[in-house]
Amino acid sequence: MKKKWSVLVIMLFVGAIVLSAAACSPAEKKQEAGSNGEIILATTTSTQDSGLLDYILPDFESQTGIAVKVVAVGTGKAIEMGKNGEADVLLVHARAQEDQFVADGYATERFDVMYNDFVVLGPKDDPAKVKTTAGNDAVKAFTAIAAVPSTFVSRDDASGTNTKELAIWKAASITPEGDWYVRTGTGMGDTLTVTNEKLGYTLADRATYSNMKETMSGLEIVCEGGALLLNPYGVMAVSPTINDQINGEGAQAFVDWIISEDTQKLIGSYKINGDQQFTPGTAK
Amino acid sequence: MQYILDGFVEAFYLIFSFDPEIFQIVGLSLFVSLTSTLISTVIGVPLGILLGINNFRGKRTVSRFLYTFMSFPPVIIGLFTALFLARSGPLGQFRLMYTPTAMIIAQMVLVTPIIMGIVFNHASNSGYDVVQTGKTLGANRINILTLLILELKGGIMIALVTGFGRAISEVGAVMIVGGNIKGFTRVMTTFIAMNNNMGQYSVSIAMGIILMTISFLTNSILYHFSEGAKYEDRD
Predict the structure, then answer these.
(1) Residue B191: closest CA among chain A residues belongs to which residue?
(2) pLDDT at B38
(3) A5 contact residues in B (CB cutoff 8 A)
(4) Nearest CB to A84 within list B86, B182, B235
(5) B156 pLDDT exceeds 50?
(6) Closest CA to B126 of B141, B102, B147
(7) Interchain contact B55–A (C-beta under 8 A)
(8) Is the peptide bond before B73 cis (omega within 30 degrees of 0)?
(9) pLDDT of the residue at A9
(10) Residue ranges of domains in chain A, CATH in brackets
(11) pLDDT of B35-82, one tens digit each?
């Protein structure tokens, strides 16, 4: 009788493992579909969270037979993964960091893929009067916020958005410090939630904000459209010389594919609630 | 309020829409956590019993370390596992980073001390008597180990349930070593974290409800067998 108990538990465990393995078998099949190998694409959360990659990647996989494993992290982390050779190809948005990456020899070339834009969000009563004074100039907007000072929520996570935010502070010759400058260290979604709760200002990418607009009842766009607020995305194949496990051919195939005319059209046709999310090509 | 209600509605929708992606995510979560718990049991139970029933110099220090490892943060375990498995790491040539295998390894590192610690605790408390009784009855080493496992089954069961609960609910380690890759390493907890970050609260709550239900069912089944066994013993 006593043995029966342990036999039952073991059977239960093994049975559950077999069953769950069967349930997750689509994953195994998908891997087999990558008959020409696989590549690891390190990219920003915005391209994944906006749904763009789910929309365009099946085309690449069916054309080339290469499976793409998407690891969505902040731009800072993605660049770091490239430097260590943990990823084969990067799709990121922090121009200065990207140019440095190429200059340091981690990739041979960077290509423009697409762009969208950032928006400055603020509380509806706009205590820093950004709407009336700044127009589409983000530097003026930030200066007005710091002058009050009014609460500003920073992502502080070395992401593309954070890099852009710091560049705007620098352009305004302001070092943001003090109780009014809140550092969340989290992704765009979390930071927007914090901004909405604290009724502060923040810099956000338009795609994530559009997605979350309904739940952001306390916020609205206070500054948009300036040249400084453009958000260009670049693609780089990591140099295969970094280590022997980088799939250089696969990465190059991905770069060739994403800047090809057909894929560029595909990117332009991606919409959320009828709004185009990314404009293909070079930001002007 | 509305989010919470939406969450429940969304949960029913998710379950009964029979979306293959959801089933695959739930299946992978169970596969990874059950496998890691099983491996941890095989390692942790005998070791825990062995350490528990024997008295040796430094036993107190060992127990202190063991209890500390029981509260090791998953993020740190994920980070260490990642450093070892990464392409540039010592085990890089096996290409395990961002695979379910990597997630099983990380959870195994997380769960083994928990199972070992709980079994160790129970074995320290009552294991000695069992060994003495067994010896008096003329049992050999194998007999004694079997006897110990049977006598300590209540504690072992708690160890298993605790270990599995910790494995299936942690997000830090699987996020780092798995990477939350769609259709490949995305599990329930990383799915919840991702959707929360995208502001899709109702989907997060829905998956949370599914996770809780699965934990409840797993624990019910395990308890059913262990309790059932106890009643049989009294006959």
Answers:
(1) A49
(2) 95
(3) 153, 225-226, 228-229, 232
(4) B86
(5) yes
(6) B147
(7) no
(8) no
(9) 65
(10) 38-115+232-280 (3.40.190.10), 117-229 (3.40.190.10)
(11) 999 999 999 999 999 999 888 899 999 999 999 999 999 999 999 999
* Crossing angle (nearest 10°) for helices A2-23 and B201-234: 160
pLDDT band at A270 (very low <50, low <70, confident <90, very high): very high
Residues A120, A136: Cα–Cα separation, whole Å: 10
The predicted structure's pLDDT at residue A1: 47
DSSP element (H, E) containing B3: helix B2-16
Residue A171 phi/psi, 5° resolution? -65, -30
Predicted structure pTM score: 0.81
The tokens for A6 are 């342990």
Inspect the interface and report whether the beta carbons of B198 and A49 lie closer than 8 Å: yes
Residues paired with residue A224 on neighbouring β-strands, in sequence order: A119
What is the full DSSP assignment across A245-270?
T--HHHHHHHHHHHTSHHHHHHHHT-
Tally A–B CB contacts below 8 A.
125
Choose, out of A86, A121, A277, the residue to mutate when testing the contact with B (most B CBs < 10 Å): A86
Architecture of the structural domain at B2-234: Orthogonal Bundle (1.10)
* Residue in the block written with tokens 């209540």: B154
- Report CA-CA distances (Å) from B59 to A273, B43, B65, B118: 64, 19, 10, 15
Cβ contacts (< 8 Å) between B194 and chain A: which residues?
Answer: 49
Distance (Å, rounded) from C-alpha B43 to C-alpha B52? 14
Q: What is the pLDDT of residues B123-133, one digit of tens each?
A: 998 888 888 88
> Which residue, among A43, A88, A125, has the nearest Cα to A248 in the 3D structure?
A88
The 3-state secondary structure of B36-83 reads HHHHHHHHHHHHHHHHHHCCCCCHHHHHHHHHHHHCCCHHHHHHHHHH
- Residue A41's alpha-carbon distances to A27, A249, A261, in angstroms, are 18, 13, 21
Which residues from A are below 8 Å from B28, CB to CB? 20, 23-24, 27
Instruction: Kindly list the domain boundaries of chain B, sorted by start residue.
Output: 2-234
In three-state secondary structure terms, A109 is strand
For residue B178 the two structure tokens come to 């798995």
The two tokens of residue B117 are 């610690």
pLDDT band at residue A35 under the 50/70/90 scheme: low
> Using the beta-carbon criterion (under 8 Å), do B88 and A70 form an inter-chain contact?
no
Q: What is the ipTM of this complex?
A: 0.71
In Å, what is the CA distance from B98 to each residue of A91, B94, B137?
18, 12, 52
Q: For residue A69, give the nearest of A100, A43, A44, A38 by alpha carbon.
A: A38
Nearest to A257 by CA among A97, A32, A65: A65
φ/ψ (deg, to 5) at B190: -70, -30
Closest CA to A92 of A257, A188, A206, A235: A235
Q: How many CB atoms lie within 10 A of CB B61?
A: 9
